[in-house]
Amino acid sequence: MTPNPAIFTPLLIAAGIFFVWSCYRRFSLVTLGRPEDRFSDPGMRLMEMLLYAFGQKRVVAKPFGVNHFIIFWSFIILLLANGEFLVEGVVPSFSLALLPAPLYHGLLLAFDLVSLLTLAAIFLAFARRIFFPPTYMSTTYVKARSLEGFLILAFIALLMLAYFGLHGAEISLGNEPAAPYMPVSSAVAGLLLAFPSAVSLQSIAWFSWWIHALVLLAFICFLPHSKHMHILTAIPNCFFASLEKPNTQPREEFAKGGEFGVARVDRFTWKDLFDSFSCTECGRCQNACPATTTGKSLNPRQVIHAIKTNLLANGPLLQKGGAPVIPLIGEEGEGSSTEETIWACTTCGACMEACPVLIEHMPKIVKMRRHLVEMESKFPEELLNLFENMEQRSNPWGIAPSERTKWCSTMEIKPFEKGVTEYLFYIGCAGTFDSRSKQVTVALATILDAAGVSWGILGKEEKCCGDSVRRLGNEFVFDRMAKENVQLFREKGITKVIVQCPHCFSALKNDYRQYGLELEVIHHGELLDQLLSSGRLKLNRQVSDLGGVLFHDSCYLGRHNDVYDAPRSAITAATGSAPAEMERSRNNSFCCGAGGGRMWMEEHSGERINLNRVDEALRQNADTICTACPYCMTMFEDGLKDRQAGQTRVRDIAEVVAEGLRPA
Fold first, then answer.
1. Which DSSP category does 372 fall into?
2. CA angle 7, 12, 14 (to 5 degrees)
3. Domain-by-domain residue ranges, the chain?
4. CATH number for the domain whose boundaries are 265-375
5. Cα separation of 108 and 170, whole Å?
6. Which of 386, 458, 478 lies closest to 416, judged by CA?
7. pLDDT tens-digit series, residues 267-312
8. Contact of 498 with 524, CB cutoff 8 Å
9. CB 658 within 8 A of CB 448
10. pTM of the entire structure?
11. Which domain of life is it from (predicted)?
C-alpha cells in the first residue's frame, strides 16, 4: 500500500533539501578551525573506525552499552528498509522484492526481528531515563534538554510501531505474499484479525504508512539540529581520531605579535570543532573525571558542549568576518567555560579513555590555558612562584642547581660518560629535591648497582623536563626548557634513559619527539620487572613485612603510556604475591590529583581529589599502598595524614624491591 507519490514526493524533496542545507550550515563551521593532519595511515584509521564506531568497543564496556549497541546496529540494518520505503513512496514500482527470492526473504526476516529488538531496546531506554536515570542526567543542563532525548526515543518507537502496523495490515489484507518470512508482522496481523475494529484494515495500513513517513521525514529534518547529530559525525570522528595516545600537546611557534593558545572558537583545529559535533552526551567522561567527581566546576562533557554552542553562536559571524558575541572563556553560561573550570583539570586522561567516540577533551583545555598564561598572564596566584622557579632555576622549588647531587652524598655515583655509560639515570626534580622521593632515588640507585647496570647521572647539569609548565599552558617556558634539554642530551650522546617519575617518562618519551629527539625511555617499573624476570637482579629475601599491599596506577604511567603490568610483576616478584587492586584500577584508575600542574596548586572547591582516592584505599584495609610516581606518593601521604591513618604506609615499588636486597 503506497499513497499518492504526488503528495509524498514534494515532502521528501523539501525534507531532503532542509537536511542538506542544515548539514552544510553546521559542517561549514568546522572549516573555521585551523588545519590539522588527520588523514595519515588510512588503513589504520579504518581499523580504528571499525573497532570503535561499528564494533562499539567502548560503548559495550558498560552494561547498558549493550542496549545502545542493539539500537546502533538496528539503525544500520534498517537503513536499507527505510531507504526502500522512501524510494517506494516516490516510485511505487520499486521494491526489494526485485532481488532474488532467498535474499529478499532473508532481508524481510531480518527487518522484522530487528524492528522488534529495537522496540524492546527503546522501551528499556525509556524505562532507564524515567526510573533509573544515570547520575549525569541530574545536572541542570541535562534536565533542560531531557525532552529532546525522549523525543528521539519516541520517534524511533513510532517508526517501529508504524512498521508493524503497516505490514500487519498488509498481511491481513492478503497483500503480502512473503508473510511467512515476517513472523512478528504476521503476529500483528493475527491480532488485527482477532479483534474486529470500527477502523478498516485499509485505513490502518494507510494511517501506519503516513505515520512512518512523517516521523521519518521529521527525524531527517530534526537530526542536524539535535545532539543526535552524532549519528552523522561519530563514525568519521573515530576515523579521524589520533592514532597515538593523545598524551602530548602540539608545539607552538613563537614569533613577535603572534597569538598563542585558544581564546576564540576559530583558533581550535577543525578536528577540535568536529569533536564538539560528535559528542553523544552519554556522560561517561564526567563520571570518570576526578574534578567532576569531587565537586569541582569542571565537567568535560560540558566543556565540549560549550565549544559546540559557542561555534553555533559565533561561527556564522566569524564566517562573515565579524567578531564573536559569546566569549569562549568567560563567566558561567551557555557557550563559555570559566577560568576556574579550565584550571581544575588534572590532565589525567580519564575523560578521553572513557569516551565512546574518541573525543579529545584534555588537549582543548590545555590550549585554553595557554591563552590565559601566554596572552593574558592570568593564572592562579600560587603558580607565579612555580613559573619563576622554572625559568630561573629549572625546578619547581627554586633550589640551586648545585644542590642536585646532595641526594647521593653517601654514595659513589658516576657521571654519565659519552660512549661509556649505557643508561642515563634522569633523577627528576622530585627525586632530587623532595626529601621523601630522595629515598626512592637511593633505593633505585642501589638496585641498579646490584644488577650491574651501566648508568650515570647528569648531576648539576640536569634540568627539569618541563612537564608541569607545559600542562599548565606555559608553552613558552617549556619550549625553552625542552630545547636546552635536547641540546644537552645530544651533546652527551644520550640515547637510553631511566626515569622514576611518570611525568618525566611521558615528557621525554612523547613531548621531546616533537623536537626531533628519539630516546629509549624506560620507567623504573618496567626496568625492575625486566631485571627480576631475566634473573639479572637476584633478591636475597622475600619481602614479607609489608602486610597487604595495594597498588595504585599513576595516570601518566598507565592511561597515558599503557604501562600496567610491569609494576605489578615487580611487586609480585619481590613479595611473593600479587598486589591487591583498587576498586578503580588500570585504565579506569582514579587520579591522585597532582597531574596537569595541580601538584603546585590548591583545591578551593569540593572534596580534595587525593582524599577521595585515599578513602578508596582505606576501604580495602591495605597495610601498604604501593606507587610508582613521586607525585602520587606525596598525595597519598598527605591524604593519609589528613585521615589520621598512620597505620597505612606508602612505598614506591623501588623501595619494595630494594628491601629484598637486604640480607636474609
1. I
2. 100
3. 36-239, 265-375, 384-659
4. 1.10.1060
5. 14
6. 458
7. 999 999 999 999 998 899 999 999 999 999 999 999 999 999 999 9
8. yes
9. no
10. 0.93
11. Bacteria
